Amino acid sequence: MQIQHWRLSLFYFVYFASLGALIPFWSLYLDELEFSALEIGQLIATLAVSKVVAPYIWGWVADQSGFHIRIVQMTSLVSLLCFFPLLWVDAYWSIFWIMLLFSFFWNASLPQFEVVTLGQLGKDLHRYSRIRLWGSLGFIATVILLGALFELFSIRWLPLILLSIFAFIWFSSLLVTEHRHREVSRSHIWEVIRKPHVIALLLACFFIQASHGPYYTFFSLYMESLNYSRFSIGLLWSIGVLAEVILFFYMHTLLKLKAASYWLTFALLLTTVRWILMAYFSGIFWVVLIIQGLHAASFGMFHAAAIHLVHDYFPRHRGRGQALYASVSFGAGGAVGSLYAGFLWENVSPATTFSVAAIFAFIGMLIALKVNAPAEVAG
Description:
The chain is mostly helical. The protein has helices at about 1-30, 35-50, 55-65, 70-85, 90-120, 130-150, 160-175, 190-195, 195-210, 215-225, 230-255, 260-280, 285-295, 295-315, 320-345, 350-370. The protein has one domain (about 1-370): Growth Hormone, Chain: A (Up-down Bundle). The chain contains 16 helices and no strands. The radius of gyration is 19 Å and the shape is globular. The protein starts with a helix and ends in an 11-residue tail after the last helix.
């Protein structure tokens, strides 16, 4: 079992290493190709748009077949092949359609791997955070390494670097064994979704990810405009994820003190504070450090709490439950966040953009107050 846990950890490490290359640096790469802020927002939104439908489609297939890890392996390989043309393509519409196709398969992997991880942990769900933190470590290692690398070499090497990481994702998925468990339920998943506390959870997930749109899309460009070097930008990203790692390490203790719904709401409150600070005080270095430290709450605390709640609320539809969480939050929320960020960034100002992000987070917090029912889901 210990060996299997290390294999699970390896997949998280490599998968989030790809995010460490993609999220901080893809906007810089697109800027290098001389796309406008609006075009950059639209191209990055393609990664989220396909996530609205792709995870649920693959979640349904996985639940019906019981082959969750095989879905991860297959989609990881196909996404690798789809990304390959980006090594030489630099036209807007070509990049748009390639990224849309690539992300349809790439977005399938993580939700189903979450099901595999939680299923193999069984009654030891408190160990999830200890395994998941390896993903954060992968992100940190990549963002620091590439930040230093792009001080010396052109950022046009980024597609090749990403392609190499995607190959490692596929390889690491092959190391995880399948424990086939077919989800058989006499009820429809809609009977779970329509419950008020489940609706509230999904809406809160949507709003918090929509609030992250400006951060994921423009934080690197924003810091570069404030005269930070790319190595410094990489360090700032890593500080945020390091805070997330520390949170993941202690999350099992926090869940023993208070219910997951409590930490969900608290995370949204701190996220609101984070974007207010970003909007009006990002020119002060020590405030930027606090802003990055709050990533522990805006992503780490929220994600860990949401994963536990989804696992409890969808006992007979866990593949689709995790996929629905990904679709509504990182998919719909992420797409809306990238699109409004691109529009406001180009036509208004960064301060206004992050102020809108704070409003999204605050609305999510009010909704999260309704996520307080016990997991009484007859799925």
